[in-house]
Amino acid sequence: MFGGKKLQFEVKEIWDEGAKRMARTLDVVDASNPDRRIFYEFKSVKNFPPSNFKDQFTKDLKNASSLDQVKWIFDGAKIDDVAKFRNDMLSAIDKLELTDEMARKLMMPDSKASDLIELIKSRFSTTFLIK
User: Fold this and answer.
1) Distance between CA atoms of 45 and 112, rounded to whole angstroms?
2) SS3 of 16, please?
């Protein structure tokens, strides 16, 4: 799962968003390439989306420069119905409150929030993993 040689655990990320100070604790960060860190979130829950999904995932996107840097790993022993898991998560993705600015940062200069939603959905199986 981890291809890197420099893993950091329980990493607290802090950044400024306008006048507001933001923070997020990441479960694992693969910091082998400091310019392209990979952020891992581990979830062992039975209900989907997990609590705080909208807030946590949005913060992960704000930390990343590419969607490929964000990986959420779910405990497969807790998922009874993979199709329902996928549908519930896709519904939650549709409800994310993303901005055009986030889309431009993660995609192309003329991208919109709706484009980013579609990208996340199209890369569902590489962003949200069941192990």
Assistant:
1) 32
2) strand
